[in-house]
Specification:
Rossmann fold, globular, 6 helices, about 220 residues, alpha/beta
Length: about 220
């Protein structure tokens, strides 16, 4: 399967919480089983400036309707390290203020919403063409992606059959009301929801089954529509 994991951090590129290690280990485990797994994180300034990563531009500027009559501009760079292909998704200086790993995941919610929406536009135009079968999003900051996918791109010829999985690693009791609303919206539109807030370790085959279930569920819905 083609699997895209969207997160705010992934080791060793950006690491603040346990999500960074969880994402890296999941990517590695799935790749070892033969899946084509890629990761997308925000294009933080400190990653752009790190010569060791050698980020390579693949999309300079793609404009899209950001709503309310405004236009968003997304750019993408690619890093390849230890066989991990990572998309750095940015634009409109949304993550320019993040100058160190300790500041990752601290941007305002509008920046992460931009990342979520822009990522879908990236999938449509990136070359060479690569379409995920499943997009795995993590926590409240990325929770709106399933909603965007099902509403904004419901009849899109490229994205309409892409399945989604939403995992929550942060305890729900810590959510503010605004963040809880994002989570509720994501759960309402996602194909498969996973509550990982208890921190239990799960084998990689668990996620294989999760993705297959999401993919089958999404495509059965698409055929019924």
């Amino acid at each position: 399967m083609n699997i895209l994991i969207a997160a705010t951090e992934v080791a060793p590129f950006a690491k603040v919480t346990k999500l960074a290690e969880v994402t890296a280990e999941l990517r590695s485990g799935l790749s070892a089983l033969g899946h084509d797994v890629r990761v997308a994180i925000p294009c933080y300034r400190f990653l752009e400036d790190d010569a060791r990563l050698n980020p390579r531009p693949v999309i300079d500027a793609v404009e899209f309707d950001w709503g309310g009559g405004s236009v968003g501009t997304v750019s993408v760079k690619v890093c390849l390290r230890d066989d991990a292909l990572v998309y750095l998704v940015g634009g409109d200086d949304r993550f320019a203020a993040v100058r160190g790993p300790e500041e990752a995941s601290t941007c305002d919610w509008a920046a992460y919403t931009f990342f979520t929406r822009a990522l879908l536009e990236v999938i449509k135009v990136i070359e060479p063409r690569w379409i995920p079968d499943v997009i795995h999003v993590n926590d409240q900051r990325n929770a709106l992606l399933p909603a965007y996918l099902r509403v904004k791109y419901a009849v899109d010829p490229i994205l309409s059959k892409v399945a989604t999985v939403l995992s929550i690693h942060e305890p729900r009791s810590e959510n503010s009301s605004g963040r809880a609303d994002l989570l509720k919206t994501g759960i309402a539109y996602v194909d498969v929801f996973e509550d990982a807030s208890e921190g239990k370790s799960r084998p990689v085959h668990y996620f294989e089954d999760l993705y297959l279930h999401a993919y089958q569920r999404r495509n059965s819905r698409a055929m019924a529509a």
